[in-house]
């Protein structure tokens, strides 16, 4: 295989478009002469749409993508008016509850989005971990489809990882920057222990991880089983160890195609849709607002000419500057195949392409050790691109492997293996 072809396949893995994305300044046709006014209005709208109280409850790219290297000098250009076609959508209609869960053992205050399962008896919850750079709201569209197709029988929980979304450190001073795999796994398992403190009455868990999140859930599976939680399955979305590690040397060059910021949240949504990073505008309008933040004062540049201080080059920047986490990337994916195949639960691998199976997984797949499905017409963010299809596949996986749902005849009792 030529180096050029190998590089191209690596780019397909992380779903970075082979052509350079358009300059964000070309995404919207209208310039604004009143940028301060619309930026203030946009900030108010975003805060109102994603506040904790906004969720009325019942009681491509792999996510490795930090912003591009900034220009040495800020561009001189007029900000653009937000395009209302890409305005943020509140998650109110996608999840039942938005919770803040204190995890003292990890010094975290975690944002958790949750739609509990309905009905009585044995229940199952899909517990989802997002990819790097994204947030729990990347599962919003999937959550709504799971609720609709599963008729409320299956719940869905998605949390923001540390340094992502609205999860915050409770330590005084600066937030711990560590995003190593062991830290992320401990964060995930301890968060679940706070949400479901008693494993004997907790619902059955079906773990779902996208990209980096796939590495987290497969490693969390044995820890949760050892803690006596019921885990019926592990589903990994669009990540394979061999191809991911092969792509890492190209990441910095490929990530330079990303803009370093946006003039509005609408522009951020529009960029994700027009570059096909997220192929569903509806999904992007829910999830993208959580991955950008208003640029702080530290981002403002100073023009020394005449002592005039310039405005920041962009009004919004990426929430998680992942370029500084490059040292963790290899650790996220090394050993992923082994951990996936060793999971003591049913295993499902959903891929957006057929050229990604590394040798250990190819052998195991031929031996029938896990289920693999190639999902057509989607990019790396498959659960946002086609949430209806992905929900259907996950629910089918749940029905096939959740033994609590198997009906038994009257008079038939259940005993553990080895019991009398």
TrEMBL record:
Pfam families: Abhydrolase_6 (PF12697). It catalyses: [phosphatase 2A protein]-C-terminal L-leucine methyl ester + H2O = [phosphatase 2A protein]-C-terminal L-leucine + methanol + H(+). Keywords: Hydrolase, Serine esterase. This is Protein phosphatase methylesterase 1. Residues 15-52 are annotated as: Disordered. InterPro entries: AB_hydrolase_1, AB_hydrolase_fold, PPase_methylesterase_euk. Its EC number is 3.1.1.89. GO terms for molecular function: protein methylesterase activity. The keyword Hydrolase applies. The keyword Metal-binding does not apply. It is an enzyme of class 3 (hydrolase). It comes from Mycena alexandri. Belongs to the AB hydrolase superfamily. Residues 126-387 form the AB hydrolase-1 domain. The lineage of its organism: Eukaryota, Fungi, Dikarya, Basidiomycota, Agaricomycotina. PANTHER family: PROTEIN PHOSPHATASE METHYLESTERASE 1 (PTHR14189:SF0), PROTEIN PHOSPHATASE METHYLESTERASE-1 RELATED (PTHR14189). Residues 31-48 have a biased composition (Acidic residues). It comes from the Eukaryota.
């Amino acid at each position: 295989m030529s180096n050029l072809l190998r590089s191209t396949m690596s780019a397909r893995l992380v779903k970075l478009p082979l052509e350079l994305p358009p300059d964000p300044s070309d995404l919207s046709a209208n310039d604004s002469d009143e940028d301060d006014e619309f930026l203030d209005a946009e900030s108010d709208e975003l805060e109102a749409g994603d506040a904790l109280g906004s969720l009325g409850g019942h009681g491509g790219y792999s996510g490795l993508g930090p912003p591009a290297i900034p220009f040495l000098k800020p561009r001189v250009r007029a900000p653009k008016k937000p395009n209302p076609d890409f305005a943020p959508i509140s998650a109110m209609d996608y999840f039942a509850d938005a919770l803040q869960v204190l995890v003292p053992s990890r010094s975290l205050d975690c944002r958790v989005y949750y739609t509990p399962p309905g009905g009585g008896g044995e229940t199952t919850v899909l517990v989802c971990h997002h990819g790097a750079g994204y947030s729990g709201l990347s599962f919003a569209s999937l959550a709504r489809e799971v609720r609709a197709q599963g008729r409320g029988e299956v719940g869905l929980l998605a949390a923001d990882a540390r340094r992502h979304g609205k999860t915050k450190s409770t330590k005084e001073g600066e937030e711990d920057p560590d995003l190593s795999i062991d830290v992320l796994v401990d964060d995930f398992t301890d968060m679940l222990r706070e949400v479901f403190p008693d494993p004997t009455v907790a619902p059955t868990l079906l773990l779902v991880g996208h990209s980096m999140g796939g590495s987290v859930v497969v490693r969390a599976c044995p820890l949760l089983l050892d803690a006596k939680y019921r885990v019926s399955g592990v589903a990994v979305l669009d990540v394979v160890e061999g191809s991911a590690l092969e792509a890492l040397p190209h990441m910095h060059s490929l990530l330079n195609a990303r803009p370093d910021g946006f003039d509005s949240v609408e522009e951020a949504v529009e960029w994700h849709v027009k570059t096909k990073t997220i192929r569903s505008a509806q999904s992007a309008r829910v999830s993208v607002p959580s991955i950008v933040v208003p640029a702080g004062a530290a981002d403002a540049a100073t023009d020394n000419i005449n002592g005039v201080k310039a405005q920041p080059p962009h009004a919004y920047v990426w929430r998680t500057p992942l370029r500084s986490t490059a040292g963790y990337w290899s650790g996220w994916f090394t050993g992923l195949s082994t951990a996936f195949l060793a999971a003591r639960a049913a295993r499902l691998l959903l891929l957006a392409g057929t050229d990604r199976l590394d040798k250990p997984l190819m052998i195991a797949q031929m031996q029938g050790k896990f289920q693999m499905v190639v999902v057509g017409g989607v990019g790396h963010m498959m659960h946002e691109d086609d949430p209806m299809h992905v929900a259907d596949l996950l629910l089918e996986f749940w029905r096939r492997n959740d033994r609590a749902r198997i009906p038994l005849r009257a008079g038939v009792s259940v005993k553990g293996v080895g019991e009398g």
